[in-house]
User: Fold Pirin family protein from Dyadobacter endophyticus.
Amino acid sequence: MKKNVLHPAASRFFADHGWLKSAQTFSFHGNYDPQRIQFGALRVLNDDTVNGGKGFGRHPHDNMEIISIPLEGTLEHQDSLGNVALIRRGEIQVMSAGTGVYHTEFNKDQDEPVTFLQIWLYPNKLNVAPRYDQMEYASGDRHNRFQQILSPDPDDDGVWINQDAWFHLAELDKGFEIGYQLKKDGNGVYVFVVGGNVEVEGQPLSVRDGYGFWPESVVSFKSLEKSSLLVMEVPEKW
Assistant:
């Protein structure tokens, strides 16, 4: 039986490396809980803050779809594919690691921290050619609506990945109610509250809480105060 999972913000793993403070929803590196490995294809959801001028040195990935969404500040990206890029709040970055890629992610600002969501999904195709992409999205397009920022379709809105997954952002006014229509039967939905307080299918959620569940078709949301959300629809199997 598919189980709903509630991950209050305070229940996350917390790692403090000095230059990096990381709140980890799922098991990651030395933090391990067999009950918190993944939600369907969603493997990693890290809420990372990196000090000025610091960052992740050159390291490898393979056969994983890796998404970064800056919430504050600017990330500087470099990879073994020759890409050099700046990713700011209001943008999304994706790497299909495929057969293997090396990259670095650093805080471009020397004085201010950068906060971003680091998200990993298992792909539905192994050993593809590695690729990189990023996109800017308009902030007004998510006011009291779901703004698609990721899908499996290169011709659809947002960046695309090798997985039957859809990501949407929403910024909801206090008291606003809205429904999310599932894109694919059998998929699950994982909601991460970036800011504010909401009810999702009657489940109260506060800032940085996560909630994963398996809806039939439409998911109901009610914002209890001005709130911002990331809604990730992912398959159970791939």
Summary: The chain is about 0% helix and 55% strand.
